[in-house]
Amino acid sequence: MNYTLRQLEVFATICEQKSITKAAEILHLTQPAASIQLRNFQEQFEIPLTEIIGRKLYITPFGEDIYAATKSILNEAKKMEQSALAYEGHLTGKIRISVVSTGKYVMPYFLTEFLEKNPGVELSMDVTNKSSVIASLEENQVDFSLVSVIPPSGSFDLIELMENKLYLVGGKNATTSKKPLDPVHISQLPLIYREEGSGTRQTMERFLESNKIKTKKMLELTSNEAVKQAVIACLGYSIMPLIGIRNEINRGDLKIIPIKGMPIKSSWNLIWLREKKFLPPAEAFFKYVRKNKERIIQHHFSEVS
Known about the structure:
By secondary structure, the chain is an alpha/beta fold. Helix content is about 40%, strand content about 25%.
């Protein structure tokens, strides 16, 4: 056999995604390039690794066996690479981060350059709801968490990364006003909420309660992306972080409804357990963020800060 590590990487990613197109996107390849890599790998076996049924890709039982072996080979190759880097004095190891769902628009920009400069460092980043993010941190499953609402427990330390601004938004057919409207205007609108426990929902509810606003209608969805698509489809209005809707605002798919007291301002915070003993990769990332956060914000987020 004469397979390459690239072929193994492409095959493993196709198995995980059950899609050549999605695998190509993850690996920054064109779909035809990924297909060629899979075909070249398949040619080394007489038994099919995959099959297409009704335009859907399936991994054959033989393919599952080869996938398991492939993952083992890739893991050993990664260990070899890290050993070489460590021997040469480079930083190696893993950073584990949990991020609230809206934070996915923020965290990657604080990671890209650091990981490029430290190729021996691996990243494990879980994007989930606020409750799960805090639970993973409290159980010491991650090094850092990114949140916009600080947990009430005093067992955390933090770095404030950047300001978080939330606005009332509607679809492209929403009526806007040049002058900010009184918050009571919101009571006449069908509102779309995030799920219980979401930091965005908590911020939204505090604003409504402080202005004694009773909502007309409530639709609850379990992700920022789902809320955004519902608002775009004109199912209702919502109070959303600007960081996650910049492109839709610029395209005109969403409109900001000016309301007195908005934007609601909070902060994106990188938090960690106060007694946490960082391993070298996490310690290096902490120092990198503290030193470079202003430059990163200015370069990537100047229009929302």
